């Protein structure tokens, strides 16, 4: 019996923790998508900064097909060539000496937090266990990561949260100084907050965190799940700042659409993860690793990274033109192709209204909270798609009465 799923079937069969748009995309090519009715959309969302090379990219499709005819899964009782190939390229192109592969950003951050506490326990003693994070941060949906994240709405209603977690104010070094102590084992920070409003860190703030960690013997963890793998115009955002973390987490764009995550660190820190201390059933999966290797090798090419900055400038210019017409944004900010446009008082909390209007115009967008439009398109989105997408956004905003 043939059956075409509908949006109503989501409400019938799926848990209600999501509220997806009415359209159901069924096919993608580059930076464009088509729904069940054959209607076309320009994709400025990128699967929330995941589809770094757009849809149906030949390098990723080729890697998946080739590996799919060889080996799908082994478990970590054995290693495999694609996982080792991916780990090697990550080590050779970053500060890291060691890599832990997993299936998502939440898993990568969970591993990073556990590693930081284990290192502090083994090297300094069990009393050094406090983690400092930041308000409005987001680090995943596991109970540990959602508690470290600085948005209480995500941890409320699930019982007592893990202890030893403190929250400072992002881009406010004094607020960190008030909290840090000899008990602090790690500071976890996004070089650019994504879910919290697309807010880049001030260079002096990150430098200050590095110095405080050095002073107190704490580890500096960079959560680059959303801003890493070419998103800022460098392979990882720490390279833009010239500040090296002790631990770095990566996911989203790492697999270009295939679920994978990675936690990277140094030999010295990584040595405490001895056999049995941590694991992931699908971590290092050959399919995921093969696709991720193809993604990293494509994205790290100079012409791709240089193109990110060129596209950033074009999107920013287009947003400024929109602002001149509608007087709708109080600030346009971000790095590379993670850009936030914050609405002013005239359009206060109209983000989701703009999203709905944009869908009607054939444009897929994101928000970061109720008041910030978020743009995370493919790193190689054609300029003509940017211009056409912005024309559709202009029509969407014009359709709203303010």
Automatic annotation (TrEMBL):
Binding site for N(2)-acetyl-L-ornithine: 141, 280
Name the record gives this protein: Acetylornithine aminotransferase
One GO location term (cellular component): cytoplasm
Note: May also have succinyldiaminopimelate aminotransferase activity, thus carrying out the corresponding step in lysine biosynthesis.
Protein localization: Cytoplasm
Residues annotated with N6-(pyridoxal phosphate)lysine modification: 252
Keyword terms, alphabetized: Amino-acid biosynthesis, Aminotransferase, Arginine biosynthesis, Cytoplasm, Pyridoxal phosphate, Transferase
Membrane-crossing segments per the record: none
Gene name of the record: argD
Swiss-Prot/TrEMBL catalytic activity: N(2)-acetyl-L-ornithine + 2-oxoglutarate = N-acetyl-L-glutamate 5-semialdehyde + L-glutamate
Cofactor(s) this protein requires: pyridoxal 5'-phosphate
């Amino acid at each position: 019996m043939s059956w075409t799923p509908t949006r109503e079937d989501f409400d019938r069969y799926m848990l209600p923790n999501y509220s997806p748009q009415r359209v159901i995309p069924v096919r993608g090519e580059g930076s464009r998508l088509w729904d069940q009715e054959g209607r076309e959309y320009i994709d400025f969302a990128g699967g929330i900064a995941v589809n770094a090379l757009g849809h149906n990219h030949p390098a990723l499709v080729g890697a998946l097909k080739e590996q799919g005819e060889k080996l799908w899964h082994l478990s970590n009782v054995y290693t495999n060539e694609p996982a080792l190939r991916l780990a090697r390229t990550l080590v050779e192109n970053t500060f890291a000496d060691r890599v832990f592969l997993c299936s998502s950003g939440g898993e990568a951050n969970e591993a990073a937090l556990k590693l930081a506490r284990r290192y502090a326990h083994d090297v300094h003693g069990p009393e050094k266990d406090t983690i400092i994070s930041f308000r409005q941060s987001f680090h995943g949906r596991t109970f540990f990561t959602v508690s470290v994240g600085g948005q209480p709405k995500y941890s409320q209603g699930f019982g007592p949260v893990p202890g030893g977690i403190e929250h400072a104010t992002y881009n406010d070094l004094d607020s960190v100084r008030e909290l840090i102590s000899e008990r602090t084992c790690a500071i976890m920070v996004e070089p650019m907050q994504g879910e919290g409003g697309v807010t880049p860190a001030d260079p002096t703030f990150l430098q200050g965190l590095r110095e405080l960690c050095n002073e107190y013997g704490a580890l500096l963890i960079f959560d680059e799940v959303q801003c890493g793998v070419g998103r800022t115009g460098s392979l990882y955002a720490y390279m833009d700042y010239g500040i090296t973390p002790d631990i770095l987490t990566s996911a989203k764009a790492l697999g270009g659409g295939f679920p994978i995550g990675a936690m990277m660190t140094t030999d010295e820190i990584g040595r405490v993860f001895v056999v049995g201390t941590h694991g992931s059933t699908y971590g290092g999966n050959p399919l995921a690793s093969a696709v991720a290797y193809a993604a990293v090798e494509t994205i790290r090419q100079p012409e791709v990274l240089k193109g990110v900055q060129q596209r950033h400038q074009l999107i920013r210019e287009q947003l400024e033109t929109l602002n001149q017409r509608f007087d709708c944004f109080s600030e346009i900010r971000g790095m590379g192709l993670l850009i936030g446009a914050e609405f002013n008082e005239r359009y206060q909390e109209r983000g989701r209204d703009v999203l709905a209007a944009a869908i009607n115009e054939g444009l897929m967008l994101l928000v970061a909270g109720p008041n910030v439009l978020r743009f995370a398109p493919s790193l190689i989105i054609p300029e003509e798609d940017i211009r056409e997408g912005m024309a559709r956004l202009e029509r969407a905003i014009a359709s709203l009465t303010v």
